[in-house]
Amino acid sequence: MPFLTDKKILLGITGSIAAYKVADWVRALRREGCQVTVVMTESACRFISPLTMAALSGNPVHTGMFTAEAPETIPHINLARDHDLLVIAPASAQTIGRLAHGLADNLLATIALASSVPVLVCPAMNSVMFQHPATQANLATIRSYGYRVVEPDCGKMACDEEGPGRLTEWEKARQAILTAIAPQNLGNENVLITAGPTREAFDPVRFLSNPSTGKMGYALAATAKQRGATVTLISGPTTFAPPPGVQCIQVSSAAEMQVEVMNCLKAATIIVKAAAVSDYRFAETQPHKVKKGQTALSLELVANPDILKELGKLKEKSPDFPLLVGFAAESRDHLEEGKRKLKEKNLDLIVINDIGGTETGFGTETNKVTILDSNGSQEDVPLLSKEETAHRIWDAVGRVLASKR
Q1: Which of 34, 159, 248, 264 is catalytic?
Q2: Contacts of 296 (CB under 8 A, 6+ apart)
Q3: Could you say which residues of the chain have pLDDT below 50?
Q4: Looking at residue 83, what DSSP letter applies?
Q5: Residue 19, Cα to own-chain centre: how many angstroms?
Q6: Element (H, E) at 64
Q7: Could you tell me the CATH superfamily of domain 190-281+300-404?
Q8: Beta strands in 92-213 (DSSP E)
Q9: For the chain, how long is the longest CA-to-CA vector?
Q10: Which of 148, 195, 307, 389 could form a disulfide with 214, with the two C-beta atoms 3.0–4.6 Å apart?
Q11: Which residues pair with 9 in a beta bridge?
């Protein structure tokens, strides 16, 4: 089941030209299984029609304190009470001022005062207005109340000025929504994750590698951050941008990845080795491009360091070593190979995935894994998106951490 399925989101739209952008947010939330209810201020209705938002959300749109068809339901109380999260987007300077001073002069502001669920505020306004000391003071005030502010993007405005104040893009907002809803069971953890392939150079234009895209590792990094962890991601070459709030260290070869893992080891409390590290490298790297001409070419390969095995050996010597999670990408004898690696590499937990399936493994959107831990527990995770699979892995990590403590 998708992580956001059946979550109830209350979306507050205020008077900003960026109001049109959140129409797509509503569509995206509904695609992920959310129930979305929209509240609009009077000014918001001048920028986008309540009829549009009702059609997109599939629910009636609430616009006024005293215009409800069923006033006996006390809209500002029940709307606050019946949802898992309040998202105010776009949040105008006026609305941020209302929130900061605890005003209850419209339906949305009153709902915010009556709400006990997380409140996510996504500012959008002219850059001069955003940077004004009054706006910055109001933002600091609502943060002190516990409201979560998603910083706006920089760029060109509708007014032709350029600077901070653009409504954040959906992916950043989505991560903030997931963070607000996700269990915060990694709040005190420093998580070190490796992701993607490595490349072993033969000459300046050729290398030895594998089809890993890094999608699973990046999903693990994003979801660990959502659950409150401090996350460092050591990534081989991929096409993905680092998840918001995640420190990313880019490497190319297995040797570079080994160096960075060891450099980051001291701060880590959990290590997840999700990278597809090349087992071999060329014995010699050619300084210039090797030209065509030979009918055959024999290349000598030598073994790369086994970073996971090296970590397992260090773990034997230290009772305070970070919790160690490995991956086993297998095409046959999946369970047997996973059990062997779990023991041989001294892991706390191993995730076994089938790289031979059409819906699993490298480059796919989904995964189907088996999770084994050193106590003999086994969990067969069904076919899920890689993001959902990552959440299942963190659930398993949480159980192992609880048993250790």
Answers
A1: 159
A2: none
A3: none
A4: -
A5: 25
A6: none
A7: CoaB-like (3.40.50.10300)
A8: 119-123, 148-149, 153-156, 162-166, 190-195, 200-203, 206-208
A9: 87
A10: 195
A11: 36, 85
Compute how many other C-beta atoms are within 10 angstroms of the C-beta atom of residue 76.
23
Name the 3-class secondary structure at 187.
coil
Helices assigned H by DSSP within 145-211: 170-181
Q: For residue range 325-376, what is the model confidence (pLDDT) as tens digits? A: 999 988 788 889 999 999 999 999 999 998 877 888 788 889 999 999 998 9
Query: Domain map of the chain by residue range?
Result: 8-181, 190-281+300-404
Alpha carbon distance 357, 298 (integer Å): 32
CA 209 – CA 212 distance, rounded (Å): 9
Classify 8-181 by CATH class.
alpha beta
- The predicted pLDDT at position 75 comes to 72
b/e per residue 371-399 (b: at least 16 CB within 10 A): bbbeeeeebebeebbbbbbbbbbbebbeb
Residue 35 pairs with which residues in a beta bridge?
A: 8
DSSP β-ladder status, 270-273 and 323-330? parallel
For 48, list phi and psi in degrees, rounded to 5: -150, 145
Two structure tokens written together for 18: 């960026």
* Contact (CB, 8 A) for 355 and 330: yes
Candidates 166, 183, 258, 175; CA nearest to 219 is: 175
Residue 159 annotated in active site: yes
Does residue 256 contact residue 278 with C-beta atoms inside 8 Å? no
Q: Is 192 exposed, middle or buried (0-12, 13-18, 19+ CB in 10 A)?
A: buried
Which of 369, 401, 175, 378 is closest to 274 using CA atoms? 369
Q: Where would I find the H helices in 299-364? A: 307-317, 334-344
Could you check whether 8-181 and 190-281+300-404 share the same CATH topology? yes
Separation of alpha carbons 104 and 117, rounded Å: 17
Q: What is the pLDDT, as a whole number, of residue 1? A: 54
